[in-house]
Amino acid sequence: MMFPNRKTLFRSALALPAALALSPAAMAEPKTFVIDDEHFSIVFEIMHIGYAPVMGMFREVEGEFVYDEEARELSSGQLVFKSNSVYTNHEKRDDHVRGTDFLNSKKYPDITYTITDFETTGENTGTVTGNLEMLGQTQPVVLDVTLNKAAVYPFGHEEYTLGISASTTLKRSDWGMTYGIDKAMVGDDVTLRFGFEAIRESGMF
Description:
The protein has 205 residues and is mainly beta. The chain contains 3 helices and 10 strands. It has helices spanning 6-22, 24-27, 91-98; strands spanning 31-48, 52-58, 61-68, 73-82, 86-87, 110-120, 125-134, 137-152, 160-171, 189-200. It is elongated.
């Protein structure tokens, strides 16, 4: 039986760290980021009778995603909005939006966006493709996403945090929400804008 000499072992020892450093498996470090519900906003905008847009927001959301900063890969993720948390600064209108003409919150309490794909478009921009489930129907939605900042939080929880903005425009009729469209009372196009912070899980617990 032949044993490697000391020089061969030494060279192998030197080569191993370099091989690991170049290995995609070694470079890939996907981490789970959890949405900070204290620093999350989703704003929607929809035209009312052609006069002016009505703006509103969802006040309750939860979610997380898995992101590899080194490879710039978003492998999975989900956001869940509570439909009865909708707010438009008018109580009677909010009750109407929660009802069967729009969100039907009693039957469908959750609006869920599940990520299916991600493509980098610039140094800190990309497009996220996902499935939006609303009113019992699922349709694809593409978000334009900007990574605003990635750093350790300067106070409070002091965890590594991503700051993200995103936007898209969709047609609510694609989910069967057609109230007011035929008489142009309420627009079909809905503009969505997101702004949120996501905290990286430490993996210690």
